[in-house]
Design brief:
The structure is a homodimer of 121-residue chains. Chain A is mainly alpha-helical and 121 residues long. Chain A is built from 6 helices and 3 strands. Chain A has helices at 4-8, 20-28, 31-40, 47-53, 59-71, 93-112, and strands spanning 45-46, 75-80, 86-91. Chain A has a 3-stranded antiparallel beta sheet with strand order 1-3-2. Chain A binds a DNA duplex (20 and 20 nucleotides) through helix 4 and helix 5.
DNA sequence: CAGCATCCGGGATGATACTG
DNA sequence: CAGTATCATCCCGGATGCTG
């Protein structure tokens, strides 16, 4: 079991207010971040594909999410000088490493979601 | 690598809009949910201890978060009929199972957060 | 096709005060 | 100590329209 104290280790300021890790956690575990990363874990995706696969996301949030994850070095954006324009997104090496942890977590949640009745609030 | 298609498996509606798993994901991976769960992974905690350990959380959000996680069956609330009142929170068996996945993820993020420059947005 | 700019409403969140 | 109630605020995120 990995606990807060273990994660903090020698640096007690880890995960306190203003700590950078909190920011990254917010990016990665955000409402749309998880789903976009999950979709990209499957392979390279174009803008339109993501838009369709991540059901319910708006263009604004897709753009915002992709920019954040790209800036974090988890996603690579590759644009081709063609007409019509084509842009592809894929996970970076670091992104794939992240997904090796995030994937199983989401998988577990999906498997057990139906037993969790607390959908209020 | 666990991808969206793999998670969806035989049920294509998994993780689409309105799917219960999205709700649970939002609870578990919420800004404060992660930190509260992480603190409880260390052991039983009282209200005041959580308030101090999860730095920056307001009483309102602590209460709301604990109620949600309790309703999801991840946290157990135990109150003692004493004066002054004492209430203890701890992970349920399901909660500990969840943390076996969530813990390593957060651990990895903390270890790599300093390399992720994109703190904008 | 791939995206950005702008507006704006509502739920999420914080601050404060109060109760058992 | 362990909360709840109320109010003010903020910013997330949806809708729309436009550009390269």
């Amino acid at each position: 079991m990995v606990s807060l104290a273990q994660i903090r280790g020698e640096d007690p300021s880890t995960l306190t207010a203003g700590c950078p890790s909190r920011t990254v956690i917010d990016h990665v575990m955000s409402k749309w971040g998880v789903l976009v990363l999950l979709s990209l874990a499957e392979g390279t995706r174009r803008w339109g594909e993501l838009r369709r696969e991540v059901e319910g996301i708006s263009e604004k949030m897709l753009g915002s999410t992709l920019r954040t994850l790209t800036a974090d070095g988890l996603v690579l954006r590759r644009s081709f000088p063609e007409v019509p324009p084509r842009v592809e997104y894929e996970l970076t090496e670091r992104g794939r490493e992240l997904m090796s942890h995030l994937g199983p977590l989401v998988h577990w949640i999906v498997d057990h979601a139906h037993e969790m009745v607390g959908t209020t609030d």
